[in-house]
Amino acid sequence: MSSDRGRETAPRTEYLKAYRVMLMARVLEEKLSSLYRAGHIKGGVFLGRGQEALSVSVGINLRKGDIYAPLIRDQAGRMAFGDTALDTLRTYLGSQLGSMRGRDGNIHRGRPREGYYAMISHLGAMIPTVTGALLARRFRGETGVVGATCIGDGGTSTGAFHEGLNAAAVEKLPLIMVVANNQYAYSTPNDRQYACADLLDKAAGYGVAGHDVDGTDLGACLEVLGKAVAAARAGGGPQLIVGRLLRLVGHGEHDDASYVDPALKASHVGRDCLKVAEDYIVENGWATPEEIASWRVEAKSEVDVTAAKVLREPAPDPNEEEWMAISETRLQDNFAA
Amino acid sequence: MITYLDAIRSAMDEALGRDPRVFLYGQDIGSFGGAFKATKGLAKKYPGRVMDAPLSEDAIVGIAIGAAIEGMRPIVEMQFADFSTCGFNQIVNHAATLFYRTEVSCPIVVRLPSGGSPGGGPFHSQSMEGLYAQYPGLVVMTPGTVEDAYSMLLDAVTIDDPVIFCEHKFLYNHLRAEELPKETTPIGKARIVRHGRDVTVVTYSAMVHESLAAADELREDGYQVEVVDLRTVKPLDTDTVLASVARTGRLLCVSESFPWGGVSAEVIARVTSEGFGLLDAPPQRLSAKDTPVPYHPNLWSSHRPTANAIASALRRLLEM
Asked: Are residues B21 and B157 in the same domain?
């Protein structure tokens, strides 16, 4: 098990690149929140505030050809893996032109053909799925690829988490299993979620390598994820990474999170990872506060322009919809109208 | 002679030989050859492609989905159809929704050793085709003959959508054929296994044989019973059913699954709404009893429809 060794090693360029993605994800989510409040988004909005450092560190360590099945708070990781503000907005707003074409929304988007899987809501389900994808890669003789999937503390209680992690361990597949321990599953606190001392204990239980990381510290996250991904790529089998952090918003934008313990907010895990990263950048002289402010303005402008464009895009038309749940038209069941 | 089980094994053997994208995954299916020996000898013949899975139905189906997204053609075995409930989420929420959501198809085959056998009891005897057929996005096959077991499983592997393959355990060693078929009936087409003019029985899987035995019984009373084997319950071949009812005017649906809802209810709903005028009597159905499947053979043999029970139901229907 590697320990959280803090912030000293991540190189400047990687750190700044990761920070810019985090910032973009944060700004984009601020826009999503505002569109939600304005009634433009029909379904729920789920934000990753407080989890961007851990999330971006997963996405940034993946390469083209890897597999990524992100979770609801992984906007930053998604963007690091290649997802765009345009497709995020299209999916949330139900645009016909989005990757899900209005058939699925918000955070369930993906492009499976590009290794970017579209999650289902049943938490943990993507763990065996990514395991199967990695098995397929091994059948094809591909080496050096990894598959990453994410869960929260609540998701570690589901059968799919245990079954998937166990199966990946049995097959010694390069699965990166990231747990964002954000202290609450919806409103349920950790002491009602699990009784083991540490979620990392689950790694030993399945014979997989475990890594603990301070999820509020971008440098630490980049370092630990870099190490875990490299270990899996090199044939070291599944890697379980547990990030300690606090979800800084409600479960969704409909949730005021009034149940969150104020003592947790005031503690180390309650730090805002974006602010921590900004301070680190400024302390190191890698950028001035003015430069960071200008990056934010730049991001905001791009998001605003994109949102305005998507708001004018066509909604799906039920009369144009094919209403086919299977790909083989000859096997379509012929119901009476 | 080739049994229904041999036919299933031969289909998998052929699929593995034909297409390097095919692999088998499931509990005890490797060198042990599976709980029913459906995969006997295949692990040795196709090293690395017939894999024992941990006892994890959710993971087994999830792994198949992931492998399918990456271009493989997995066939997974649920040791008993009943155990597929532990993989239900992956089947109905993930495999079944994938194409509609993402335009990426999900060519997996989930083999369900289905139906009752003496001593099977409540957790090793269920018929779940109606449950899976309820969900958009799944193809549900219920072969009732050795020939169909073979040809339909071979077809299932080539289909780009998730197939729930309900093979009947009771038929595994009871049903025999001279040889494997050279020609096949297309998937989604029902087959009239016996022509008759007086009454139509619509059924599938093991109940085809009970229905044929009942038809024999009624022949002695001078009735000609038409027996339609649905073969696949989704898609459901409404046209063949309606054409048969048009000839006979009477319909009995026979299924081994629980009575509430299900395939029989669907067939009757379609016939009454699309072919009401063809009916000379109210359509009837005969299903298993509305209790869990019992263990003792005395109870079990009366829990599911038998040839006698089907014959009685037919007599009542013919008198209406």
From this structure: yes
**Is B137 in CB contact (< 8 Å) with chain A?**
yes
B201-214 tens-digit pLDDT: 999 999 999 999 99
Task: Count chain A–chain B contacts defined by CB atoms under 8 A.
Answer: 156
Q: Burial, A50: exposed, middle or buried (Cβ in 10 Å; 0-12, 13-18, 19+)? A: buried
CA distances from B217 to A153, A184, B201, B213 (A): 63, 66, 14, 6
Interface of A with B in 296-325 (CB under 8 A): 324-325
B214 plus B133 within the same structural domain: no
In a domain, B183, yes or no: no
Candidates A97, A100, A111, A129: best to mutate against B (most CBs of B within 10 A) is A129
Does residue B182 lie in a domain region?
no
Kindly list the residues from chain B whose CB atom is less than 8 angstroms away from the CB atom of residue A164. Answer: 58-59, 62
Q: Is the predicted pLDDT of residue A8 greater than 80, yes or no?
A: no
Residue B146 has pLDDT above 50, yes or no: yes
In whole angstroms, what is the distance from residue B166 CA to residue A169 CA? 30
- Does residue B128 share a domain with residue B30? yes
Q: What is the CATH number of the domain that holds B23?
A: 3.40.50.970
Residues in a beta bridge with B166: B112
State pTM to two decimals. Answer: 0.96
How close A261 gets to chain B, by Cα (Å)? Answer: 34
Q: What is the 3-state secondary structure (H, E, C) of A175-204?
A: EEEEEEECCEECCEEHHHCCCCCCCCHHHH
For chain A positions 92-111, those within 8 Å of chain B (CB to CB) are: 99-100, 103-104, 108, 110-111
Q: What's the pLDDT score for residue B83?
A: 98
Same domain, B32 and B123: yes
The answer to whether residue B296 is domain-embedded is yes
Q: Is B124 a catalytic residue?
A: yes
Residue B185 domain-assigned? no
In this prediction the ipTM stands at 0.96
A329 to chain B, any CB pair closer than 8 A? The answer is no
The CATH class of the A12-311 domain is alpha beta
